[in-house]
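Sample intake sheet
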Amino acid sequence: MVLITKQQKRVAYNHLLEEGVIVVKKDVHLKKHQTLDMPNLNLMCIMKSLKSKQFVTEIFSWNWYYYTCLLYTSPSPRDRQKSRMPSSACKKKKKKKKKKKKKKKKKKKK
């Protein structure tokens, strides 16, 4: 279990919002991160948490993690997940609505 202080979180969040990207080496035993004044393990845990909440994307290459902030990109993956209905199902609903409107018009004519 890793204990992370609020100050460490703030430092990581500020750096992420200013730069838009954080690069973390996959080395749990590294005493200090290359640019930020905190243990590398703490930063890895902070970024893993943000990834699980879908605030950042993760790319792993050659033992380095590249985290990109999604607050600046549009549309975000979270927006796509809200609508879980496929587009074909949406079309079927529209057709049903049109049929209901036609039936109502026929009833009014009679």
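Comment: The longest strand covers residues 56-61. The two ends are 73 Å apart (CA to CA).
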